[in-house]
Specification:
TrmH; elongated; 9 helices; alpha/beta; RNA-binding; tRNA-binding
Length: 220
């Protein structure tokens, strides 16, 4: 349960404009779609995908680091790591199991004989969109466990796009369609409260000292 008194205490430190921006952004956040990237070697590509998630309203990014241990490139992410939830996994199986337990269908974004064009994709089901590297694509484990396959229509000679470009195109298209639909795609009231608290803490300098002072004055 969220400590509403603590939330109010922190938000009183923020400007009215900051608090209004939080509510405006959270109004457009969704977990109906989530994004997963698998063993992306170039660190800046994962960071760029996170930035696209933030810009287009995807709240959670799942990062599989089975082969390459990475850190988020803050310069590329441009602060997006403060507003997007990062779920890290050290195995493909762990990520797949977690997402399936949350009710997501697994969608591999790759050309496939049973693939679906982006504009024809059924947005009604909660979906985890998986992206692999441009060179190697997604692993066999993900392909074998996928519930569907999605690709971007292309009419040129080049048959693939950089992962960050592909993710931006797909996320922008699907989230725009989602917001025009009658689907219940928004965060719950409880999820919004959780994000308000976290974002307030991320916005306040010396938060540890302020938090200690609050709980000294308001013992549990």
């Amino acid at each position: 349960m969220i400590d509403l008194d603590y939330l109010a205490f922190l938000e009183n430190i923020l400007t009215d404009n900051r608090k209004a921006n939080f509510l405006k952004v959270l109004e457009n956040r969704t977990k109906h779609f989530t994004v997963a990237v698998e063993d992306v070697y170039q660190m800046h590509n994962t960071s760029a995908v996170m930035r696209s998630c933030e810009v287009f309203g995807i709240q959670e990014l799942n990062v599989i680091e089975q082969r390459f241990g990475k850190r988020i490139d803050k310069e590329i992410a441009l602060g997006a790591q403060k507003w997007v939830d990062i779920n890290r996994f050290d195995s493909v199986s762990g990520c797949l199991s977690d997402l399936k337990s949350k009710g997501y269908q697994i969608i591999a974004t790759t050309p496939h004989e049973k693939d679906c064009m982006l504009e024809d994709f059924d947005i009604t089901k909660p979906s985890a969109l998986f992206f692999g590297t441009e060179k190697e694509g997604l692993s066999k484990e993900i392909m074998d466990n996928a519930d569907g396959f999605l690709k971007i229509p292309m009419v040129g000679f080049t048959e693939s796009l950089n992962i960050s470009v592909s993710a931006a195109i797909i996320i922008q298209s699907l989230t725009n369609r989602l917001r025009r639909s009658d689907i219940d795609w928004k965060l719950s009231e409880e999820e919004i409260l959780v994000k308000r608290l976290l974002w307030a803490k991320n916005s306040i300098k010396d938060i540890k000292r302020i938090e200690e002072r609050y709980y000294q004055d308001n013992p549990r």
